[in-house]
Amino acid sequence: MYLRPAYRRLIWLALVAACAAVLFAWRGPALMGDAEQAASGLWRKASSPPPPSAEEVQRSQARRAAPDGGSGQARPAAVPRKCQLNGQTIYTDGPCPAGSQEQIVPENLSVIPR
């Protein structure tokens, strides 16, 4: 039996479409779940703030190390410090407690005195 080339192509196309439909019915929900997880991870990564630049780090360190002129002027406001200790964040105006790690303080941090 002889089939025209156009019919042979249509039969192959129908077989490929049927295989794709069976594959999607078998693995489709799992693939969609994986794609959703990947998309949400990418969204979280894209929407998180960028790490501080070297310039911001230097500016923050320069603020902390502001030398005391000793000229009898009024004492400047204490510079806030952000310390990580056992997974907790502590803000203080003095040195960080022993065993903690000092983090970069955001430029827009507001401090309200007690």
Textual characterization of the structure:
It is a single chain. This protein has two helices and three strands; from the N terminus they run H-H-E-E-E. By secondary structure, it is mainly α. The mean pLDDT is 81. A hairpin with a 2-residue loop joins strand 1 (81-85) and strand 2 (88-92). The relative contact order is 0.08. The longest helix has 43 residues, at 5-47. It folds into two domains: 1-47, no CATH class; 78-114, no CATH class. Strands 2-1-3 form a three-stranded antiparallel β-sheet, with no helix packed on it.
The secondary structure category is: mainly alpha
How far apart lie the N and C ends?
Answer: 95 Å
Helical fraction equals: 40-55%
Shape estimate: rod-shaped
The percent range for strand residues is 5-15%
Mean pLDDT: 81
The SSE string, one letter per element, is HHEEE
* Domains, number: 2
Q: Helix count, per DSSP? A: 2
Largest sheet: 3 strands, antiparallel
Radius of gyration: 31 Å
Protein name: DUF4124 domain-containing protein
Region (Disordered): 38-114
Give structural attributes.
47% helix, mainly alpha, rod-shaped, 2 domains, 114 residues
Would you summarize the structure shown here?
Helices cover 47% and strands 11% of the residues.
Blueprint (SSEs and pairs):
Blueprint: H1 5-47, H2 54-64, E1 81-85, E2 88-92, E3 101-103
Antiparallel strand pairs: 1-2, 1-3
